Known about the structure:
The chain is α/β, with parallel strands linked by helices. The protein folds into 2 domains: 10-67 and 189-404, QueA-like; 70-169, no CATH class. The protein is built from 10 helices and 18 strands. The strands form 3 sheets. The chain has a 10-stranded mixed beta sheet with strand order 2-1-18-17-14-3-12-13-16-15, covered by helices on one side. It has a 6-stranded antiparallel beta sheet with strand order 5-6-7-10-9-8, covered by helices on one side. Strands 4-11 form a two-stranded parallel sheet. Strand 8 (122-129) and strand 9 form a beta hairpin. The longest helix is centred in the last third of the chain and has 19 residues, at 276-294. The two termini are 31 Å apart.
Amino acid sequence: MIGKSLDIAIADFDYSLTEDRIAKFPLAQRDKAKLLVLRDEAISEIPFFELPQLLDKDSLLIYNDTKVVHARLFFKKDSGSIIEVFCLEPTDPNEIQIAFAQKGLGRWKCFIGNNKKWKQGQLTKSIEYEGKTITLNAEREQQVDNAWVVKFTWTKEYSFAEVLSLMGVIPLPPYLNREARKEDNDDYQTIYALEEGSVAAPTAGLHFTENTFLDLDNKQVKSSFVTLHVGAGTFKPVNTDSIADHVMHTEKITITKQVIKDLIDYIDKKIICVGTTSVRTIESLYWHGVKLIEIKDTDIDIDVKQWEPYQKEVDVKPKEALQAILDKMEEENIDLLCGQTQIIIAPSYKYRIVQAMITNFHQPKSTLLLLVSAMIGEKWKECYKFALENEFRFLSFGDACYFEP
């Protein structure tokens, strides 16, 4: 199969992460987190609020502006049993923004907790809001892999986005091993979150504050925003011995024409991605541009497959790939590029556009750790060892890294 050349043992990306090193809650001040810096092969530590001083003038920072939705719904049966319905992605309609705007009816692919207690029939929950009763019904339909398609019906004057916001709970990562608090509605959201659609936050961005952006502006560091809606697959463990046998999850992405122009302008300067989701988005752009160059009738919508970067040698320059996308967008008179990516970035991958990244510390034996290793090689082990020995906090609410190979 494609990808067998990427015969990497996931056991080589393991390290000891004890429960006490996982940050269960964020710091009171986001930008007071630690920042591990790998630059010129040297490892150092600074507070995150000093990031603007670290970056070069005329760098471009790329952020993911996705917004975490209250995707967990809890229904109580007459018997007292609690059924959790975790909304993953819409199926009818399947365009996420249209699905959020739907009123009265929609279908979603969902994980179902305590599924054995849901024998049959419809689940219902109601709340009082501004003097009115809002009712939400859930009806389980067909099974899809380890999830189900659930038909939702609700009080028609409200959108599904409003219903989730009022009735749902923010979906914290399972490794936090705690229930969500009211404070998590803000804490587990970047300050620039805009486009609703994620079930997990792009956590590298959680460290940024208004002061950070002011300091970046003063340093003449430019900011651009893409959208990748983070799915539950981001927590999917690698259960195969070799990465070649792992099936990567697919996620929806959206990029404006202005971002393509920014990337072209900065490709010979410094392009830095905030978070692994931004990395996957920007690198996927390269492969989409390559297809537009090599296959003239390629659809404008992005659809990058898992093993696409490993199928053949490619000598298309990054600027050429980006220009091909820009030309196609102008030819078709569109300002928004949409689609999906399944790209897996692992050792042997050659970064085309991204030159540095800001990211959090990732779980052992995860595809995110592979993505980091693809950029800094075996140096990841030294960085993580340094972090463990110097009281860094790990995972979603933990400290951050700046990697510049």
